[in-house]
């Protein structure tokens, strides 16, 4: 099955590389937001069970504890919680739209890195050039990409300039710090090992967990704004 998918992807990519990347990004981003919404529902149900049974509250250090408890500190749970919200298809469409729109820019950026820092045919210096690609990617593209993400999502949700400014003030720097924890190592592997046609799909696949984190961060800020007096 994997071999068939790889052959299909290579065939589509050879004919229409940008469009193939756009569709791949959109599908993977949809999977990521679905994961994030599932985690949000799980988080709320866990909080409800903890409120109903105090003994469960002592065992909340599960495998989601680090990120979920950070969000809990940001948005304290009230004494009584509403039921988990229904699945938000519009939110998933927004995430898929952002990934679809950003794919051509990602495609050009990766092509630029590939051309600017080529790997020598002998293999000597390949690791050094891979590190240069990572440095350029993380110092230039990553901050701009996060800024574009939070701006796009806030505007798509109906927010104005003030909402965008608040989103940057509250969540941009923590998200950027998390980016520098996760992505440099991922991109070293990506640039050093993956063929160029698989680099963006590889990033998008690893990015399922990252986009889920961004989705949780973005929705957490929205809940904080919506719940504030």
TrEMBL record:
**Where in this chain does the entry annotate a coiled-coil region?**
none
Q: Where in the cell is it found?
A: Membrane
User: Which GO cellular component terms are attached?
Assistant: membrane; mitochondrion
**Keywords tagged on the record:** Membrane, Transmembrane, Transmembrane helix
One Pfam family per UniProt = Mpv17_PMP22
Q: What is the recorded membrane topology of this protein?
A: Multi-pass membrane protein
Principal localization? membrane
Q: Which PANTHER family match?
A: PEROXISOMAL MEMBRANE PROTEIN 2, PXMP2 MPV17, VACUOLAR MEMBRANE PROTEIN YOR292C
* Family statement: Belongs to the peroxisomal membrane protein PXMP2/4 family.
User: Which named protein is this?
Assistant: Uncharacterized protein
Query: What is the source species?
Result: Elasticomyces elasticus
Taxonomic path: Eukaryota, Fungi, Dikarya, Ascomycota, Pezizomycotina
């Amino acid at each position: 099955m994997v071999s068939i998918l790889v052959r299909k992807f290579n065939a589509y990519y050879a004919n229409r590389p940008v469009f193939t990347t756009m569709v791949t990004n959109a599908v993977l981003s949809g999977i990521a937001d679905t994961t994030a919404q599932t985690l949000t529902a799980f988080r709320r149900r866990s909080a409800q069970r903890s409120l109903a049974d105090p003994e469960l509250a002592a065992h909340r250090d599960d495998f989601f504890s680090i990120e979920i408890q950070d969000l809990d500190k940001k948005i304290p749970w009230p004494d009584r919680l509403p039921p988990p919200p229904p699945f938000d298809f519009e939110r998933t469409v927004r995430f898929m739209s952002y990934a679809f729109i950003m794919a051509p820019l990602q495609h050009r950026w990766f092509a630029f890195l590939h051309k600017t820092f080529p790997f020598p045919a002998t293999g000597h210096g390949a690791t050094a050039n891979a590190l240069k690609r990572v440095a350029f990617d993380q110092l230039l593209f990553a901050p701009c990409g996060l800024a574009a993400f939070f701006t796009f999502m806030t505007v798509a949700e109906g927010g104005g300039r003030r909402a965008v400014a608040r989103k940057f003030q509250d969540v941009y720097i923590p998200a950027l710090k998390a980016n520098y924890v996760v992505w440099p190592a991922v991109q070293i592997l990506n640039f050093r090992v993956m063929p160029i046609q698989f680099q963006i799909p590889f990033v998008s696949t690893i990015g399922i967990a990252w986009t889920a984190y961004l989705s949780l961060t973005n929705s957490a800020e929205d809940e904080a704004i919506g719940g504030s007096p």
